[in-house]
Amino acid sequence: MKTKMNDIGAFGVLIAVLIILFTSCQEDVVEPERVPIKAEIKQIIINNSVSNVVFQNKVETDMDTITVTVPQGTDVSQLDLDILVNYFGTLEPEAGITDLTNPIVYTVTSNTETRQFLVQSKIVPPSISTFVLTSPVEAVGTISGDSIILEILEGIDLSAAMFTAEAFGESIVPDPSGTIDLTVDSPTLKVINRDFEAVYNIYIEYYNVIEFTGAFYDGTVHPNVFLPGSVANDEADRWVVESNPAAYGGSVVHFTSLGDFSGSAAFDYGDLGLDDSPDEVTSIFRVKGIPDAGENYLEIAFKIGDLRAKFYLEKDNIEIKGGSNVKINFADWTDFDPTAWNTYRVTMNKITRSIVLYVNEEQTPVLETTLKGNSGDEIDFGDGGGGLYECLIDYIAIETTGAFTPEDLPLSKILQ
After folding, report:
1. What residues have CB less than 8 Å from 336, skipping those under 6 apart?
2. Looking at the predicted structure, is the pLDDT value of residue 1 above 80?
3. pLDDT at 14
4. Residue 46 pLDDT > 60, yes or no?
5. Which domains does the chain carry?
6. In the prediction, which pLDDT does 52 show?
7. Spatial contact of 131 and 165, defined as CB atoms under 8 Å apart
């Protein structure tokens, strides 16, 4: 009997210990903090069950005000709304068939906060926001009021043009999946929504690419043959025609200067059959410097009326000396190689006294300065200021109807 009593006592002690441990563990348990969820309206979708049309709506949020944009003709007193809130959020009043003739205040409650939103409707008539011509050429239309304006290169056939458009409404006529004839008188585009429509007039503004009407020397003949008397006969051997498959005409002129002007080739505007006293001149020449040249690769004197400037293609820089001297060093222009074939475009304007240099038909000029006093209307290859230089000349193009950028008068129009 004594043994049983001892067993009972030991069991009681064990139970007491377990109770103490369980109580201690309960005191250590900490209720986890709730993750705050923002109370907000994420999206409003309108399902117009009456007309079975689902509109894509623009929701503009300004603080706690939401504007729902709907097309003209929508009955805002019978809008079937789906209002999406954050996870575990509640909405009061509930969404569904809603009268948004007047704004409604919705209350959104999350696990940590409550916010109110003023939801209002905005009725917008049918309208177009973008119009882009995709074929036969690409052009972005300028939308101004009820007009769509396109700038198109003259000569393009627009009888079956293709386009894309973004509009606020149910449909666009003609449909962007098809074509539109822009050659008819007063072509139009319609945006339709139910009984409402917006009509846009499409206007085509044609432009022309400037045609080359100047003189072109392609290096296949000696300058004396191209322009008799341009080079002194006793210096003719400084200009040697050589076969070169990399050249435009299959051959080039190998030009060498001995340090004076007697071997220069003077391209006189009047002798070339051009305006003999132009106000603007564009000259384009493709040149390759000879690596073993003495001092420079090429020197040119550009003259227009009583103004001039000198161009120098040297071993370490390109320089124009005019009213002020400007140059760019090849050490700063590491991707340029003067001994490779490069195209140089020089434009002169007698009225503004400007001279501008473009290289390799890039639209951004490399150098710009002003012309200074001189006399004559010509371009002298080999007449810059003396020195020993040597280069290959592929072609020379001279235009006296304007000072044209590479975009104004593309080289492709000259070499076609």
Report:
1. 330, 342, 359
2. no
3. 57
4. yes
5. 41-124 (2.60.40.2340), 127-207 (2.60.40.2340), 215-414 (2.60.120.200)
6. 36
7. yes
